[in-house]
Amino acid sequence: MPNTPDFYCVMGHPIAHSRSPWIHSRFAELTGESLSYERNLVPLDGFADAVRAFAGRGGRGCNVTVSFKLEAANCAGEKSERVVLAGAANTLVLHADGRISADNTDGLGIVADITRNAGVSIAGRDVLLIGAGGAAAGVLGPLLREKPRRVVIANRTQARAEQLAASHQQIAAETHVELRVAALDALDEDFDIVINGTASSLAGAESPVPARVLRAGSLAYDMMYGAAAQGFMDWATRHGAVARDGLGMLVEQAAESFALWRGVRPPADQVLRELRAEIAAGR
């Protein structure tokens, strides 16, 4: 009798755009792992119920995207250091005994994409992180570990940005990074790397910050990808920056999740090349 594949999914709202099923299916093909991976559209008030239902079906793990990363951290009894620091999770491990473990691979993913795939060093650079929600919280710690010169957090609700900065001050002190907060409409500095961690692109907005934050040749990085990132990328290109979407981050963080679930590290660079070719071909 053939082995039944293990079940995994990505949970979010919206979710139809997600490329995660393609990515994890390709990882499985390349590593010889047996799994089934699906999209799961979750009601905005139904995340915990959705996790329990998926676990009840025999689900082994979930990726978590907007807008449930904070809730994902809260529903887990076991949390990695990254989750404790960020207060957000993007990866859940569903154990057979009912335990739920949470990790956050977003920061590892964005650092790998910026430094390895885009070839841009973060060390010694000036970084602007736009947003203070679950996406931004997940990447701040790993960004600080790369030892930039300074990181400024700008968010619509400044109190939330201050809370995020406060929770990361110890890492900033250990890595000798200047970490502070600025109001979105009061930014009067420019940066080497500008990271959009908000959902502004989903609403069709170009950028939540003024163009003066960009230097000539700055890396302007939207954590969204595809059509959702296009407005921000077009804005960045018009103002002399190098625009990059979050597709590489998506693949790299997925590789970290896959390794956590399966104990096997997939070839993220190959899958990223293949996925960009799929998108370029309109598939």
Topology:
Elements: E1 6-12, H1 20-31, E2 35-41, H2 47-56, E3 59-64, H3 69-74, E4 78-79, H4 81-86, E5 91-94, E6 100-103, H5 106-117, E7 126-130, H6 134-145, E8 150-155, H7 158-167, H8 169-175, E9 178-183, E10 191-196, E11 214-222, H9 227-238, E12 242-244, H10 247-262, H11 268-280
Parallel strand pairs: 1-2, 1-3, 4-6, 7-8, 7-10, 8-9, 10-11, 11-12
Antiparallel strand pairs: 3-5, 5-6
Helix pairs in contact: 1-10, 5-6, 5-10, 10-11
Report on this structure:
With 283 residues, this protein is of the alpha/beta class. 41% of the residues lie in helices and 23% in strands. It has a six-stranded mixed β-sheet with strand order 2-1-3-5-6-4, sandwiched between helices. Strands 9-8-7-10-11-12 form a six-stranded parallel β-sheet, with helices on both faces. β11, α9 and β12 form a beta-alpha-beta unit. α5 packs across α6 and α10 crosses α11. The radius of gyration is 18 Å and the shape is globular. The chain starts with 5 loop residues before the first strand and ends with a helix.
Based on the model shown, name its key terms.
single chain, about 280 residues, alpha/beta, 6-stranded mixed beta sheet, 11 helices, 12 strands, about 40% helix
Please outline what is shown here.
The protein is α/β, with parallel strands linked by helices and 283 residues long. The chain has helices spanning 20-31, 47-56, 69-74, 81-86, 106-117, 134-145, 158-167, 169-175, 227-238, 247-262, 268-280, and strands at residues 6-12, 35-41, 59-64, 78-79, 91-94, 100-103, 126-130, 150-155, 178-183, 191-196, 214-222, 242-244.
